[in-house]
Amino acid sequence: MIDPASGKPLSRLQTWLAIMVMLSGTTFVALVVTAVSPIMHMLSDHFGSGGYGKTVAYGIATVPSIGIMIGAPITGWVIERVGARNFLLVILLVFGFSGSAGLYLDDIRLLVATRFILGVSAAGIVTATLIMISEYFEADMRARVLGYQAAVGALAALSIIMAAGPLAEWAGWRAPFALYLIAFLVFLAAAVAIPKRPARADRLPRAAAQPDAWAALIALWVPIAVITALFVGSFMPTLQVSFLLAANGVMKPSVNSLVLSSSALMVGAGSAMYGPLRHRFGDRAMLALCATAIGAGIVVMGLSQGAIQVAVGCAISGIGTGLLNPQANNMLITRAGPNARGRAAGLGYTARYLGDFANPVIVAPLAVAVGLHGAFVVLGGAFVVAAMLSVAMNRAAPVSA
């Protein structure tokens, strides 16, 4: 690797540590929710009985998502002004302290507040690593590295879920909060590996740069809308499969976990395949491929009557999500240009979590109208049809090469 500021090559140790730091970005987003998902019932029992305890547990799990959605574009804006390295070092410390607060805090309000800060800091970490990848790698290699980063995040999510449960059984509900301390190890690696950057000589004065930056961001509204829509489907396994399995008569949580693990595994596989595929196809074709896989998987889930068929649908959908994660990042930071990359990357994560929040709003009335299985089929079919129409209407005029 070459330091883009000085033109000098990094040492072998710096290179490997720097790559590890950059690939770790999505792991921190995965950590936010997956570290506590296996202990939801323990949180509920500790903080209260009945509905109150469940409300607290849901708050601890979901408030970070609000922090990510709100904090992503804000942290992107800050990164553009202070630099990715400086911001990353600070925000890693914030993540470590706020995430591990569950090790010693018992006050519900303080704990929920730290969880919101955790979400903001996770958004900042992943945005900073995305900006670093865009600075250190050219277009083709950048696509590959973004795919590897997304794959690492998917596999990390699976590993964290598998580790958090045994930790809680061994040492109590507070133990999984120790997983957030990994931020301090990544801080040390980043401090050693990522070179200090001088002020960019080619940077436009702020007054001149801002109009172009805002124009570039405004021009992203179409891809951001598409990303939001696709993530409505991407979150179907996480948000709706548990209810679908129950409707199929599958009630065991262990079976639920196994079904969802098929999605997580294929998300990692899809992300790993992104680089070679992106080299051959443009943005429009990649988005159509994502929509087709996500939609086809949702249809298979909707037509299923047992756990195995649902797992197959989750796996197919997972491939699409695995391709979509790096595609969204690559498309936004490439189109935004250097002056707006931070905010563009942040808006990509806002779009993801808007899709998360929109999913139940869309699926619930569909389920009332046509049943839960029918809702899956209708929503998945809409994605497949939209992908086919996009390819048919724009074959001669792709979005990008």
In short:
The chain has 401 residues and is an all-alpha fold. The chain has helices at 12-23, 25-34, 40-47, 50-82, 84-99, 108-136, 139-171, 182-193, 206-218, 221-234, 236-247, 253-280, 283-302, 307-336, 341-394. The model is unreliable at 199-209 (pLDDT under 50).
Number of strands: 0
CATH class of the largest domain: Mainly Alpha
Give me the CATH fold name of the largest domain. Growth Hormone, Chain: A
* Percent strand: under 5%
What is the share of helical residues? over 70%
If you compute it from the alpha carbons, what radius of gyration comes out, rounded to the nearest whole angstrom?
A: 21 Å
- Helix/strand/pairing category: mainly alpha
Q: What would the principal axes of the Cα set say about the shape?
A: globular
Identify the CATH architecture of the largest domain. Answer: Up-down Bundle
User: How are helices and strands ordered from N to C?
Assistant: HHHHHHHHHHHHHHH
Can you describe this structure?
With 401 residues, this protein is mainly α. The protein has two domains: 195 residues, MFS general substrate transporter like domains (Growth Hormone, Chain: A), CATH 1.20.1250.20; 198 residues, Growth Hormone, Chain: A. It is 81% helix and 0% strand. The protein is built from 15 helices and no strands.
